[in-house]
Specification:
The structure is a homodimer. Chain A contains eight helices and five strands. Chains A and B meet through strand 3, helix 4, helix 5 and helix 6 of A and strand 3, helix 4, helix 5 and helix 6 of B.
Chain lengths: ~230, ~230
């Protein structure tokens, strides 16, 4: 059986990516990160999703020491609400977390090499998250190049492959794809600023992108909003 | 004042690298990692060294979950002893830790971006550690390329620079350089398999490379051997 490491946040994109990896026949080693994100409901969602989809193993790695300061997702900074689509897609968002996907993929690479597997899946998307530098195809290409230079396996002729199956899909297409693969999106979490009882705010950038995606997909979003 | 992030293990190379960064006028933000290495005396050495050389800040980041399994440095595998120079330099050593420098540099990149600094120093060396894929110049070039694609700062036109000032020096040259910069090598730790009372074994690859370096430099190694 083929094996792959899959990064999973517990949102729509990484959940669909995990479903795609499993549908492609991979036994999946799933990796989530506790990096002091304010929306730690993500991690509970990741656990539910990994179990529901039948991941072979799920690890949550703690990233300590506040190394990821400087983002509205980790610091005590207001998450923007009710922004227009133009505002959401202009420039690098304040929810950008410095070098996050680089750190996440580095861990995935380390674990993949330990497991002896060379396929890594990441649910990045260049359309709805165009402001994030580490969600672009050129970032993936650069990391793949690095991975093959940085490792014993790479030197010995193995080729690491970073799979980003959602890179050019719209949110609506991602939701349709996940639905066809049997994903239960009620298990996922997207909101950057949920209420105390765990409901999504409906107005942060992430909620707005999610809701627009379900509208595009002509499907009902199964989660509760505040 | 210029600022830089410097990776510090507490061995000869990273200690000399820190001394070089300081001599070049950088205020230094020093980063060490607790990754379950068997020779945790390294971390004590790193703390002593950072203090002695006058680092501006020193953080030790814990890498959890045994993600770095598969190495004689982290697992319960015998560290090789008494190998010949030919054996030490042939192939990838069993003390190779999967993707270690990739993970370390990713953290350094995240911290650098949070600090608003674009200079990162790493004490890798392509001569004495020729078997480690992530100690080669092409690895550094690939990481620099990645850093500038992966980050908000890179997208906005800043250039991250990964400084590897020791990359083409011999161990003897590194020791002479450090000595000229006032490094107290009695504070450093190199051994992969120290005795219970903290003395270096003298026979692992790292001790052998260190001792050869001091011989080449025609200097006395100030540490105690078993």
């Amino acid at each position: 059986m083929k094996h792959a490491v899959v990064l999973l946040s517990g949102g729509i994109d990484s959940t669909t990516t995990l479903a795609i990896a499993i549908a492609q026949g991979y036994a999946t080693y799933v990796l989530s990160f506790d990096y002091g994100q304010r929306h730690s409901l993500e991690l509970e969602a990741a656990r539910r999703v990994a179990k529901s989809l039948g991941a072979k193993e799920h690890r949550t790695v703690k990233i300590d020491n506040g190394i990821f300061g400087g983002s509205a997702l980790t610091d005590n900074v207001d998450v923007p609400k009710g922004r227009s689509e133009k505002e959401i897609t202009a420039g690098v968002p304040i929810t950008y977390v410095p070098a996050r996907n680089t750190v996440f993929l580095s861990y995935a690479l380390a674990w993949a090499e330990v497991l002896g597997t060379f396929d890594i899946f990441i649910g990045i998307n260049a359309l709805d998250y165009s402001g994030y530098p580490d969600c672009r195809p050129e970032f993936i290409t650069a990391f793949e190049n690095l991975a093959n230079l940085a490792t014993k396996s790479g030197v010995e002729g193995q080729r690491f492959r970073i799979h980003a199956p959602l890179i050019s899909l719209s949110k609506g297409e991602i939701i349709r794809c996940g639905t066809e693969l049997g994903v239960d999106f009620s298990l996922t979490h997207s909101c950057y600023d949920p209420t105390a009882d765990g409901r999504a705010c409906g107005r942060c950038d992430s909620c707005q992108i999610r809701r627009k995606g379900f509208r595009e997909a002509r499907l009902q979003d199964p989660i509760a909003y505040a």
